[in-house]
Amino acid sequence: MADPGLYPPFPYDAETATGFARTMFDHLDNGTTDMAPEVLEIDPRVYRDPELAARERAELFGYVPIVAAHGTELPKPNDYLTVQLPNNEVVLVRQRDGLVRGFVNTCRHRGARLVNEDSGNRRFFSCRYHGWSYGGDGSLRAIADEPTFGAMDKSCLGLKEVPVEERHGFVWAVDSAAPDRKIDVGEWLGPDFDASLGAMEMDRYHCHRVGDFDLEINWKVLMDAFLDGYHIAYAHTGTVAPYFHNNAQTWQPMGRHGRMVSARKSIDTIRGQDPATVDVNRHITVAHFLMPNMTVLRQPDHLEVLNFVPAPHTAVGTRMQMRILTREPATTDELTARWEKNWNILQAVLQDEDIVVNEGLQKAVSNADLGPLYLGRNEIANQHFHRWMAAALADPRHWG
């Protein structure tokens, strides 16, 4: 039997927990799910149009905060990570004052890639092309053979900086170095969603493992897969389908974002009891969907975080970032084995099932003779996502 200490307390108050239990019991008893008012028709070009993809990168990702890392990936001063965002490759650097700053990974001299490693710890970054050197604060410290280069004002030649903020344990960035760009994660999340994320205390979690996977799939195809609880019984027969109820979810929009609850089949052991007295913690998955491109799945003993980062310069490319967060670092072989097992399950769900299906979907939506696609009333979270994307691009600087 698993150590009860591995399971963090349920992060929501009794009223919220009771609501989760009551609604899931009702859906499972009646064969229902939360539903949108009507079926939504969508244009398949949203998954393949280069002009739309360019607008998304410039008008959305160039302005709004997205997650670039978890704070425990940069535990010490001078720790750094290189991160590919939709518009820029960025170097995140933990400063001596504890803050994290982000810089475009390009030497200001001739445009060489400055940092070639994925991560490390450095006080200075030196360009391997001509030896220009930058501090961890992005300032240009030295020009090699400066007397022969010519007079330059080094104070104006620091690395281009993108806005960065830490909140809820994550490092967020706005993917633009334009002077007018600011970051305010709390405003972006809105008070209700910010409080829901805060309740999970993700700043107390540790990033056990992170993986990057480059795929020739539009990022919205992948986001759709994680918004959808309708495909579990069909696409995931080899992994999680035996353990989760299909097509039975609750959906709560929270401003731009939303929260969904789905049930493990183990919930059947407590159905019929009073929703106000049952412990529903180990029987449900609470999913937070952060517009535009992130999912946080709260499993009973860990968190799974997925980011779908549009690739630069193409409509059909995504860097899928996967993270497993645990309440404490794995300090024993038993804990390491436990979290590695969960990592391998997540890999199997994605690599062997979701990605296989969605690579086929991406190929199919390139067919010339293709009519509109449809999101059912039961695909309520997907409808929220697509309606929000359309509204965000129709109303720049307000984003839905």
UniProtKB/TrEMBL annotation:
InterPro entries linked to this entry: ARHD_Rieske_2Fe_2S, Rieske_2Fe-2S, Rieske_2Fe-2S_sf, Ring_hydroxy_dOase_asu_C_dom, Rng_hydr_dOase-A
Entries under Gene3D superfamilies matching the protein: Naphthalene 1,2-dioxygenase Alpha Subunit, Chain A, domain 1 (3.90.380.10), Rieske [2Fe-2S] iron-sulphur domain (2.102.10.10)
Keyword terms, alphabetized: 2Fe-2S, Iron, Iron-sulfur, Metal-binding, NAD, Oxidoreductase
Cofactors that this protein relies on: Fe cation
Entry-linked SUPFAM superfamilies: Bet v1-like, ISP domain
Domain of life: Bacteria
Domain Rieske: 66-173
Official protein name in the record: Rieske domain-containing protein
Organism listed in the record: Pseudonocardia xishanensis
